[in-house]
Amino acid sequence: MTAPIRIGMVGGGFMGRVHRMAQRLDGDYQLIAGAFSSDPERARSSGKALNLDPARVYTDFTTMAEREAAREDGIHVVSIVTPNHLHAPIAQAFIEAGIHVICEKPLSISLEEAMALRALVRRHGVQLLLTHNYSGYPAVRRARQLIREGTLGELRLVEVDYAQDWLSEAGSEGWRGDPALAGPAGALGDIGIHAWQLADYVTGREIDTLSADLHTFVAGRQLDDFAQAMLRYRDGARGRLSVSQVSPGNNNRLRLAVYGSRGGLHFDQESPDALWFARLGDPLQRLSRNGPGSGAADLQASRLPAGHPEGYLEAFAQLYRDFACSLRGEAPPDIALPDVDTGCRGLAFVEAMLASSQSNGAWTAPAYPTD
């Protein structure tokens, strides 16, 4: 049996619990170190609750990176689950220590920071996974494969929407409402970047220019709680993106529709076990996870027989499992894990959205990195 990969964690909260569950699901990782809080008592309490060696519970990430790198039994990879403004400095400390990184999105709070991390990853030869977990769903991978095979024909339209309601009233923002901690984008940086990545991953098409409108509905809020854009793709396709955290009745309604000259696809994150496919002129089909016609990419991301639902945690765990394969030098199917380049391109999208909205919707080209 392959030994689990030694992993550490910086940060905590809700997403910390999600990441730890994802790490455990397939037995690929063992959590052995962490910096869960800068407060010594909280750090010790968190470490004790996770049955960690007290000597490997830290109160700052710099010390953790240095000491773990110096140990023969040190961690191989670190998981970063902190507010956005800390992603880049924490990732930098561990990359420079030669430790692989799993980072919550967004990669940083600016494209400049993200590009600096990209250079560090290449210089130190480490791997970085960005947890855009929706790309771990089997249905999403099946949609990507169908498009790559040309099943839809020439792509014409891409529509992606992400609606939530938890910011419909003032006072619930937490650190996500503080530009110093969250960065310059609110709903756009929190869920808009997920919507962008889902469309980007499935279609494989890059946005050429976009016309954006960001708005803040709740009085006193410093960051956007709504964003929308018209999209023009480099191959001539057109698109639309809309994200809102002030839409009552919506929890995590992330939906993607892609239409081509020969057919269309529709995915709904709240019903993730199915992909809806319409071949032009034929009845609408429900393609079940692990059902007839499944391919290598989506079968590899499916753990249970069709009809036994899999969802958010399994998709999250799939990224961890695929990253474990990559760290071990194994070869999973062609699934294109979200990495440091994905993070840079995502920040280029965010900054183009901000610039366009500030210019009254002027068509703006994302400054995607080039080699």
Automatic annotation (TrEMBL):
Residue ranges of every copy of the Gfo/Idh/MocA-like oxidoreductase N-terminal domain listed in the record: 5-131
InterPro entries: Gfo/Idh/MocA-like_OxRdtase_N, Gfo/Idh/MocA_oxidoreduct, GFO_IDH_MocA-like_dom, NAD(P)-bd_dom_sf
Pfam annotation, one family: GFO_IDH_MocA_C3
Residues annotated as domain GFO/IDH/MocA-like oxidoreductase: 140-265
Protein name per the record: Gfo/Idh/MocA family protein
